[in-house]
Amino acid sequence: MRWVVIILGVVAIGFVAFMLIGSNESEPPEGFEPPGFFGWLDSLGGAPRLVEKPVSIPDDGGWTLAVPRACGTPARIATLEIKSGAYVSVAYECRADAPRDCRGPVELCRDQVFCLASAEGASICPSDREEVTEADVSFGPEGGLLRITAPLGGTASVELR
Prior knowledge:
Elements: H1 2-21, H2 37-42, E1 55-59, E2 62-67, E3 76-84, E4 87-94, E5 112-117, E6 130-132, E7 134-139, E8 144-149, E9 156-160
Parallel strand pairs: 5-6
Antiparallel strand pairs: 1-9, 2-8, 3-7, 3-9, 4-5, 4-8
């Protein structure tokens, strides 16, 4: 028993010495900003892309993409950019009836609604929609529906990558 106490004492002294002297923590470089949420998701250790190659979506009224379930994947992301037309409305709604073992983080399962508007044309984006030319959309493992809607009687082209 005495040897156990002596060994534990030596290990404790070594641990304390390592913590005081041997820390490898360094100061971040000047002006360093940690990546935002989407920057982290897009990194190698983060979420995969929803599509491997860019997809052009000519739109003359409405387009819906069923995002499949991907249980075991914490999140997936995609970038949407308007290529032609004045604006399109984009909405993502996650599937609420996902099995319990296929649910992702709550922030990925909220409704994401925004308006892609081209820089050259005047858009008529609804006042309750955020207006951007390019946007990242996050998809949880439970899947859902991505809806892209052009203005009534208008056309638009969107790239999904």
